[in-house]
Design brief:
The complex is a heterodimer of chains A (575) and B (325). Chain A is of the alpha/beta class and 575 residues long. Chain A contains 19 helices and 20 strands. Chain A folds into 2 domains: 253 residues, P-loop containing nucleotide triphosphate hydrolases (Rossmann fold, 3-Layer(aba) Sandwich); 270 residues, Rossmann fold, CATH 3.40.50.300. In chain A, a hairpin with a 2-residue loop joins strand 9 and strand 10. The termini of chain A are far apart. In chain B, strand 1 and strand 2 form a beta hairpin. Chain B has a domain of 178 residues: MetI-like (MetI-like fold). Chain B has 325 residues and is mainly α. Classes of the chains: A alpha/beta (575), B mainly alpha (325).
């Protein structure tokens, strides 16, 4: 008998529009010392399983069929009080966002001692000792001192360690980790996964790890269960699922994972979930509006050339200038982007990637340095008209598709706004026709124009963002983490679309991402940033095969190894 | 921390000077001070002399400086109507207003917070829904109407409680009069303090409820439950404390509003406080009293706000900024 058994679980969410079956006939088991991964895209019902096991289903969700057994003892039928006693004591849980998982008004010690004393009844002094010991186990330096700190005094990775310590308070037999590293940088992710794996083996804890990230799966799990629309579609060893999946959904999911090892021309067969946008008509770019007025001022040399760019923020304001503490978010960064090239900028959070992007499109004014676009230094431009002229030529696509579109405007108006502002079309009918063609061109279909953003999924919204960016007929696109909020299959579709558009329109792109495999698939050359400085610039394949800077090597080492992925049927990029 | 307090103090001074300027402007632009002080048969020469001796011919900035300096010492001149120093008149009535406001504030907090917590925790219950409907009435009914209805019911129909004045008061320290020590004083407090408290009470309750519902949805509450903490600890140790952080600000502001807007309640119940004095002063164009009242209320607001800011600082460790490691 396994440590944790989930048998024929069915969870329903009754609503006014009928019952939604979030989990349908799912059976799983976890052995002691084993890490079972549950993978699937958003809405697949994977988190609901975790919540059901621990007895914390969000109302009105309810378990209508199935059992949960912990060491052969049925726990789903226990009273509320009995279930509460199991939580934390026998089943520990780790959540996604370490920044919000801890009570901000209590010290780490208060939270640890409260939990330890509750479950183990050790008394104040013994609990404190154990708390310090736990922090040491999860790798927090100077635990005796740090334990007196409040959560905000820890960095994201350290906070996730505290969260893990809290989950380990009473030595639970099973740990459920719901996206434990999604909010963390890749270097921190590697450390946290290593820590979890070690704890799991040392203490013979069974772990259920819920994630959408194939990298995490490849790194830490022994077995994988793949969920799709509430159903378990496939289960097997990690090697089998990654290398030779049987079910078409798993195959499609695996093929959409950006590969760190080889560069593909396109992502194959990614439209299992959301139909990849079909264009209903082909635009003849030589005659269509979108293809016209592309005769920009000819540039000799690079299209964009950054010279010794510096951006400073005040981190501690003070009345006297000398008391202020300044922070160089971007420190002496110089690089060129050639016409028609996709330039990647990679680095961990806080490395200054997005700040560079914002300076390029004049959202921030650099403290020093030059932003030369098509031969003109944008930082020297004084008149708004002249700035608009250059801004029309460069557009930005943001990370969060939910907050970057105005929810009160129809898609038609969202996409038409730049056309109207820059007066790029002569009549309203023409504007509407252009918008419909654009929406069709990004694979949404012209009928999307009359709807509001909230009617679309994340991937579709990102297509709207792309259509909006194309609406000024730009020559230069800045994509700031354009797919990091999206599911992997949707990400593959959006990346395919960006690749197609880039080729078709000869766009130049600055592509910012923290995700190295995505960078490898998208970019011609890459710059690596660390703490505001540019540590290396190389051609993409050189960077991956033959990194020069020590930091680049470190990043590449930390990248989840997806060696187990199958190589069948891939369409490799011509060298 | 010290820099923070210093900055707030500096801002407070600017606010006080601005209010003083407005108060001072009333002397200049609302009626003629000389006319207010002399009779019909005063000659022009005498008027000119009086104006000179009052310093009305000095440059504006000198006059304002004098006003601000005197105000700082608590000297707001002499009331046109009562012919007594304004500071004396206000001091006599200050205790009445402060006692009323204090009782109302305590009432609003002691009833408002628990009701807010209850309605948040049992948000689907019948009782909660009933409370929410009643609270809507509390927010929307005007104060004077509530006062009059209470007088009608408890004063006129049931004849349980007095409907005007403070009852018997006891002097302490010579200038502070209190109604807390006599039965009639306490009885007199009941209706006006309830009237004044009802709006604040419902506001605090709705605020606590909304904040609490918000906090109950946060990840750290979910994580606390997942660690097996009992509901009592989750609700009162983690959720309530986080709820109260933003509530402190609003409550502080409302306390200032209680003192300032006691005017209406004081008029309805003929409560001998500053508000009533102010209303009468408006009717009589008694500018020194109006000016003093304005400055005093502004002063209360500034002090309360400052206390709230410092309290905020003490309660929320995140504001004591230090970098994450």
């Amino acid at each position: 008998m396994a440590l944790l058994n989930i048998n024929n679980l069915r969870i329903e969410f009754p609503s006014r529009h009928g019952t939604v079956v979030a989990v349908d006939d799912v059976s799983l088991n976890v052995q002691p010392g084993e890490v079972l991964g549950v993978v699937g895209e958003s809405g697949a019902g994977k988190s609901t399983i975790g919540n059901a096991v621990i007895g914390l289903l969000e109302p009105p969700g309810e378990m209508t069929e199935g059992h949960v057994l912990l060491k052969s003892e049925q726990i789903d039928t226990l009273s509320l009080e009995e279930k509460r006693k199991i939580r934390g004591r026998r089943i520990g849980m780790i959540f996604q966002d370490p920044l919000t998982s801890l009570d901000p008004l209590q010290t780490v010690e208060q939270q640890l001692v409260e939990t330890i004393d509750l479950h183990l009844k050790l008394g104040e002094a013994k609990s404190q000792e154990r708390a310090v010991d736990l922090l040491r186990q999860v790798g927090i330096p100077e635990p005796e001192l740090r334990i007196k700190n409040y959560p905000h005094q820890f960095s994201g990775g350290m906070r996730q360690r505290v969260v893990i310590a809290l989950a380990l308070c009473a030595e639970p037999e099973v740990i459920i980790a719901d996206e434990p590293t999604t909010a963390l940088d890749v270097s921190i992710q590697a450390q946290i996964l290593e820590l979890m794996r070690r704890l799991c083996k040392d203490k013979q804890v069974g772990m259920l790890i819920i994630t959408h990230d194939m990298g995490v799966i490849a790194d830490i799990t022994d077995r994988v269960a793949v969920m799709y629309h509430g159903k378990l579609v496939e289960e097997g060893t990690t090697e089998k699922i990654l290398g030779n999946p049987d079910h078409p959904y798993t195959q499609s999911l695996i093929s959409a994972v950006p590969r760190p090892d080889v560069r593909l021309r396109r992502f194959p067969m990614v439209n299992y979930i959301e139909e990849e946008g079909e264009r209903t008509k082909d635009l003849d770019l030589s005659t269509h509006w979108l293809g016209q007025a592309r005769d920009f001022d000819a540039v000799e040399g690079p299209l964009l050339s950054l010279k010794n760019l510096v951006m400073t923020f005040v981190t501690k304001p003070a009345f006297l200038k000398r008391n202020r503490i300044m922070f160089n978010a971007v420190d002496d960064v110089s690089f060129d982007i050639n016409q028609g090239e996709v330039f990647g900028l990679v680095g961990e959070s806080g490395s200054g990637k997005s700040t560079v992007a914002r300076m390029v499109c004049s959202l921030y004014t650099p403290a020093a340095g030059e932003v030369n676009f098509a031969g003109t230094d944008l930082t020297k431009i004084k008149s708004q008209n002249e700035l608009d002229y250059y801004r029309r030529q460069m557009q930005m696509i943001f990370q969060d598709p939910f907050s970057s579109l105005n929810g009160r405007m129809k898609v038609l108006d969202i996409v038409a706004e730049p056309i109207r502002f820059h007066k790029l079309a002569s009549s309203n009918q023409e504007v509407e026709q252009i918008v419909m063609d654009l929406l069709d061109h990004v694979g949404l279909g012209a009928q999307a124009a009359v709807r509001f953003p909230h009617e679309f999924s994340g991937g579709q919204r990102q297509r709207i963002s792309i259509a909006r960016a194309l609406a000024t007929r730009p020559r230069f696109l800045i994509c700031d983490e354009p797919t990091s909020a999206l599911d992997v299959s949707i990400q593959a579709q959006v990346l395919n679309l960006l690749k197609d558009l880039q080729e078709e329109l000869g766009l130049t792109m600055l592509f910012i991402s923290h995700d190295l495999p995505v960078i490898r698939q998208m970019c011609d050359r890459v710059g690596v940033m660390k703490m505001g400085k540019l540590v290396e610039v190389s051609a993409t394949e050189d960077l991956f095969e033959n990194p020069k800077a020590a930091y680049t090597k470190e990043l590449l080492d930390l990248m989840p190894r997806l060696d187990k992925l199958s190589h069948e049927g891939l369409e490799l990029e011509d060298a | 921390m010290i820099a923070f307090i210093f900055k707030r103090l500096l801002q407070s001074v600017v606010v006080m000077l601005t209010v003083a300027l407005i108060a001072f402007a009333m002397f200049r632009f609302v009626g003629d001070p000389v006319n207010n002080m002399v009779g019909q048969d005063t000659t022009d020469t005498e008027r000119a002399q009086l104006a000179e001796s009052l310093g009305l011919n000095d440059p504006f900035i000198v006059q304002f400086g004098r006003f601000a300096f005197n105000a700082m010492r608590g000297d707001f001149g002499i009331s046109y109507k009562y012919r007594r120093p304004v500071s004396e008149l206000i001091l006599e009535r200050l205790s009445a207003t402060l006692e009323l406001s204090f009782v109302s504030a305590v009432l609003a907090l002691v009833v408002g917070i628990p009701l807010g917590v209850y309605t948040a925790l049992r948000s689907k219950g019948i009782i909660s829904k009933g409370i929410m409907v009643l609270s809507l009435m509390g927010v929307s009914l005007p104060t004077f109407l509530i006062g009059i209805l209470l007088i009608l019911l408890f004063g006129v129909v049931l004849r349980w409680l007095p409907t005007f004045g403070r009852g018997d008061v006891v002097d302490i320290y010579g200038w502070w009069t209190t109604g807390f020590l006599t039965v009639s004083g306490l009885k007199s407090l009941i209706l006006p303090s309830i009237t004044l408290a009802i709006f604040q009470l419902t506001l605090i309750m709705r605020l606590v409820r909304a904040e609490m519902l918000e906090v109950l949805r946060t990840d750290f509450v979910k994580f606390a439950r997942a660690r097996g903490l009992p509901d009592r600890a989750v609700h009162f140790k983690h959720a309530l404390k986080n709820t109260l952080v933003p509530v402190i600000t609003i409550t502080g502001l409302q306390l200032g509003a209680l003192i300032a807007f006691a005017i209406i309640t004081e008029s309805v119940f003929q409560w001998p406080g500053m508000g009533l004095l102010f209303i009468q002063a408006v009717a009589d164009v008694d500018i020194p009293i109006m000016a003093a009242y304005l400055v005093l209320i502004a002063f209360f607001f500034v002090v309360i706000n400052m206390v709230v800011d410092i309290l905020y600082y003490a309660v929320d460790p995140r504001l004591r900024a230090d970098a994450a490691v």
